[in-house]
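User: Structure tokens for this complex, please. No commentary.
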Amino acid sequence: MTSREYTGPAIKVNDLSFNYKNLKAVDQLSLEVPRGMSFGVLGPNGSGKTTLIRLLVGLLKPKYGTIHMMGQPPSRKMSRYIGYMPQLASLYTELSIAQNVDFFARIYGVRNRAERRMQVEEAIQLVDLWPRRRDSIYNLSGGMKQRVSLACSMVHRPPLLFLDEPTVGVDPKLRVTFWEYFQNLNKQGVTIVISSHTMDDAAHCDRLAFLREGRIIAEGTPYELRQATGQSEATLEDAFLYFVVSMEEGNESK
Amino acid sequence: MSPSNTLSIALRVVRQLVRDRRTIVIILVIPLVIMTLLRYSFPGESSLLNNAYPPLLATMGLLFSFMLTGISFLRERSQGTMERMMASPVSRFDMVVGYLLGFFILALIQILVVVLFTIYALGAHHAPGALWRICIFQIIVVTVGVNLGIFISAFARNEFQMVQFIPLIIFPQILLCGVIWPVDQMSTALQWIAKFLPLKYAINGMTDIMLKGQGLLDVGYEIGILAAFAVVISILAALTLRRGAA
Ligand SMILES: Nc1ncnc2c1ncn2[C@@H]1O[C@H](COP(=O)(O)OP(=O)(O)OP(=O)(O)O)[C@@H](O)[C@H]1O
Ligand SMILES: [Mg+2]
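Assistant:
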């Protein structure tokens, strides 16, 4: 890829809108994500996180606005450089863990046998399921499925990762491992977009966007967002509520 | 077009079913049960029975490959793996061809078992040397069924709806294509409709091969039309693939 020469933001979204029939799921959203960072998307149920991610990975076509990944519009060719973890663990239930991960490595173009074996092992090791690699997905617990799903989405080592609530159902110990790994990837220049509900994830992100009704109501580093509330003890949760309230007051005064 | 993607998908489809033992048993045993029932529902050795085998073989070739593919494909949509595939670099064309190949291999095994069982265990009459022609012809019928399954699954939102489509696709064909009553004795309007149903050609071809001992070239017209059905339906299937994933 041209990523060596490309120095601009990893993701650049301009005035993006998408609606399902009459429902505005993403509304005039603009966004820039620099390379090599973890970017968190937070917001209540139905605020448009999944829709935004599906737009970014090219599953949905924008009604208005533009998307650029590494300076290029989404295309089938670009999709090789993208890893996508859907919100619901989407796996072949009859197949084993290793077979699932191997399949996604193949269709993402990891052709070399030895290379693929290595990458598949690394991905399964990361989610700590190597001893159970021959088990069918059918026999796994909910959190384990979520972990396999994560392994499938990053086995081809993409420079861009889109993870829709990757830590749901994952136990706290493993969550710590995940974040160490994500931050390690960041250091190697991998850009990660993560949607989440937990403040624990949010605190790990380099930058955050608060989403509400398809709009970004605030964006910044976790520190900046907490500061904006004016309270020194404020948590990210407080910050989110603060922005929601101030947005509603803004609407009323209009 | 990427042969390695196509092959990866085909391989995965086969693996999935092979690991599901119960499904494999069901797929293989049920057609045999049906053929056996057919055999013993006729009193004695009647020539009527021998005339009933070819249409039923053709119908099962189409029906079972259609059901197997339709339901599997729909599961792929409902379990979300289709969404993953759609986000990947695999093209829609590679996907349809990959599934086609995968289900084709399975449907083929099924069909071979049924044909051999019908001929050897049940002693169905067949023209001398027709066995391999029956199998090759059945392969073409299966291809149409597989494509039809992928295509129709685009119109169902869940497995329940897909199951409802099965009688809709199959019964008109059974009634109008000569399984129960010869097509040429029906009204012109119905005969005209039958012209657009693949099963008509499948049954004609199978009967000619099995009972009249005709060669593949003699049924070239039927083979040609069935191949055309397969091509047109697979294009439609590729076009409708986006649905449900987005
Ligand atoms: N396929 C769809 N058809 C119609 N409306 C949809 C569809 N998918 C999502 N929506 C609507 O779009 C809005 C945004 O949904 P989205 O899934 O993006 O929310 P989310 O922020 O991911 O929520 P959650 O936290 O529950 O995952 C919701 O109001 C939802 O009802
Ligand atoms: Mg969501």
